[in-house]
Amino acid sequence: AAQDKVSLRLQNYVSSCREPEGQEQKSHDISSASEDRNQLTYLVTDAPPWYLCIFLAIQHCLTAFGATISIPLILSEGLCLQHDSLTQSHLINSIFFVSGLCTLLQVTFGVRLPILQGGTFSLLTPTMAMLSMPEWECPAWTRNASLVDTSSPVFKEEWQSRLRNLQGSIMVASLLQIVVGFLGVIGFLMRFIGPLTIAPTITLIGLSLFESSAAKAGTHWGISAMTTLLIILFSQYLRLIPVPVPAYNKLKKLHTSKFYIFQRISILLGIVVSWLICYILTVSDVLPSNPAHYGHLARTDVKGNVISDASWFTFPYPGQWGVPAVSLAGVFGLMAGIICSMAESMGDYYACAKLSGAPPPPRHAINRGIGVEGLGSLLAGAFGTGNGTTSFSENVAVLGITKVGSRTVILLSGVFLILMGILGKISAVFTTIPDPVVGGMFMVMFGVITATGISNLQSTDMNSSRTIFIFGFSMFSALSIPNWIVKNPGSLHTGVKEVDHVLHILLTTNMFVGGFLGFILDNTIPGTKRERGLPDREHEDVSDKFSASLELYDLPFGLTSFLSSQSWVRYVPFCPWRDRDTDGRTEDNNVMLRRGSELSSHGEIVEMR
User: Fold this and answer.
1) Do 475 and 204 touch, CB atoms closer than 8 A?
2) Please, what is the average pLDDT of the chain?
3) Of 16, 320, 328, 533, which is most buried with the most CB atoms under 10 A?
4) What molecular function terms (GO) are annotated for this protein (predicted)?
5) What is the dihedral of CA 166, 169, 173, 175, to 10 degrees?
6) What share of the chain is helix, strand, coil (3-state, %, to 5)?
7) Is the pLDDT of residue 314 over 60?
8) Residue 255 gets which letter from DSSP?
9) Which is more confident, 372 or 82?
10) Range in 182-191, 485-494, 595-604 with the lowest mean pLDDT
């Protein structure tokens, strides 16, 4: 009887493991439906109709809106500009203009993928560490609005001297990215930079900005909490609810179409609704008009006549704040941010290629993309944005949502960003956003940046004590060491003032301390490739699995055909060469492609977000 029971259970188990034909057909149908759902509407080289291009380009600009205006608003505090809204608007104009210019360069001559360029938070942390040094600390009178005369030559010199030093330091630091990109060194570097280096670095970018978030949100916790809740409501709870909008085409004529507005522009919607409520509370005098009372900064009339004082058109140009100067300490700190930005951009390239139906970018395209980003940071420094440029992960995610991978759309987005940088009134409007509304937006954005950094650990073995030790020790040390040095500013004395400044900036930059410790430990403590999060198999040739071919990475205007006839081109790391692309890949390119599967996981996280 016992044997019969065992036999019966074994038969039932085998039967349950055997997939019925109907179930197999059902699985096939589900797979086909999934493939249809993931089918791209427009590929990288396609050009959608002009009206659709305009709509999608505006959508990309709005997606980048929050991160773009956040950087000048945060920098204004370190530059002593918290009470000079007109200069803040000029900084916003400059960063919009340079972002559009760099987008055109990247899509046309860089990696040639539909990827938007903009300011980088990777440079924000070392910048704030540089501006917090004793010699660059803002005078007390610049923090008092009643004592600040924005037209005074003394006040102008206070903030322009800081910005000029920041400009020159960014320009010199960007040379590292230019050299690494155009000399093809990035493939060699990425062999040693794994998730246990990238994860603490990006995570600490978000964590190090908590003071700025709390300072602005604390001006009125009720308004900031409302802004945060609205963004969470729109981006998480209502993101899959479509809104019917009128549409027209030749087949259906005038009809309604579903538009996922809450998913597309959730941050902008949260800001606008909170902004409107603040305006109503200001008009009705619910918010206090006395600057000494709590909640005054939530009023929409705090910034005075900044909109009327701003010109309709402004044209940013290199050296608009004077001749750039260079701080050696600032250069080394910003180089740490540049390295972090390069690692993040690598992941964005692979994620963008995956979401736009393109094959993984070859070595020459990645080298060119990193090099052009370095040129973008050089331009950003020259124009005086106070920041560099990098690829926007948020806009990579939009490709997966809209199923439109056309780089024509991104080119048009670059043109729109340039126009936004020229229209002075638009940037002036952005500076009137109440501080608690900005603080509520920061709470969400910097939280997502922190979580995005941690998500890089998904390719490592989280059950390994090695992984837990390296990440935990790197994070805790990166919070402890800078905190102690800030509280004991006179503790670093080497006898050489310049060396003291370099060490002060590096050791007070959380992301440098965490990334450096993660890099050293990950490359010295023995561990398997699985523990380190590095792929241990060769990357297969996948170019035939994609709708687009590797030719989309060629240089424009027939330059590739012209250069292919020159034998010396094979030795230029950023130039495509037909024989190399079609007949085989070099060892460095195989390494880059193997890293693609790992680095593109960052893009998948952003897409889900």
Assistant:
1) yes
2) 81
3) 533
4) transmembrane transporter activity
5) 110
6) 70, 5, 30
7) yes
8) E
9) 372
10) 595-604
Residue 579: its pLDDT value, please? 58
Rounded CA separation 381/376 (Å):
9
* DSSP code of residue 258: E
Q: Which residue has the higher pLDDT, 220 or 392?
A: 220
* Domain range summary for the chain, segments of one domain joined by +: 50-463, 551-600
Across the range 480-496, mean pLDDT stands at: 84
Q: Round to whole Å and give the CA distance between 552 and 412.
A: 18
Instruction: Give the mean model confidence (pLDDT) for residues 155-174.
Output: 92
H/E segment holding residue 245:
strand 243-249
Burial (CB < 10 A; 0-12, 13-18, 19+), residue 238, is middle
3 state DSSP class of 147: helix
What is the spatial distance between Cα 361 and Cα 391, in angstroms, rounded to a whole number?
A: 15
Rounded-to-integer distance, Cα 106 and Cα 376, Å:
9
Calpha distance 462→500 (Å, rounded): 38
User: DSSP state, 533?
Assistant: T
Of 172, 460, 216, 91, which is closest to residue 337 (Cα–Cα)? 172
Contact 286, 292 (CB under 8 A): no
Amino acid at 302: V
Q: Residue type at 195?
A: P
Q: What is the 3-state secondary structure (H, E, C) of 197-216?
A: HHHHHHHHHHHCCHHHHHHH
CB 115 within 8 A of CB 391: yes
Share of the chain above pLDDT 70, in %: 84
Q: How many CA atoms lie within 13 A of 318 on its CB side?
A: 11
Element (H, E) at 514: helix 510-524
> What is the rounded CA–CA span in Å between residue 137 and residue 335?
22
Q: What is the CA radius of gyration of the chain?
A: 26
**DSSP-derived secondary structure letter, 256:** E
**Residue pair 139/174 in contact by the 8 Å Cβ criterion:** no
**pLDDT tens, position by position, 519-531:** 999 999 999 888 8
Write down the pTM of the prediction.
0.77
290 burial (CB, 10 Å; 0-12 / 13-18 / 19+) is exposed
- Read out DSSP for 329-376? HHHHHHHHHHHHHHHHHHHHHHHHHHHTTPPPPPHHHHHHHHHHHHHH
Mean pLDDT of 530-548: 57
Q: Which of 481, 558, 542, 554 is nearest to 517 (CA)?
A: 481
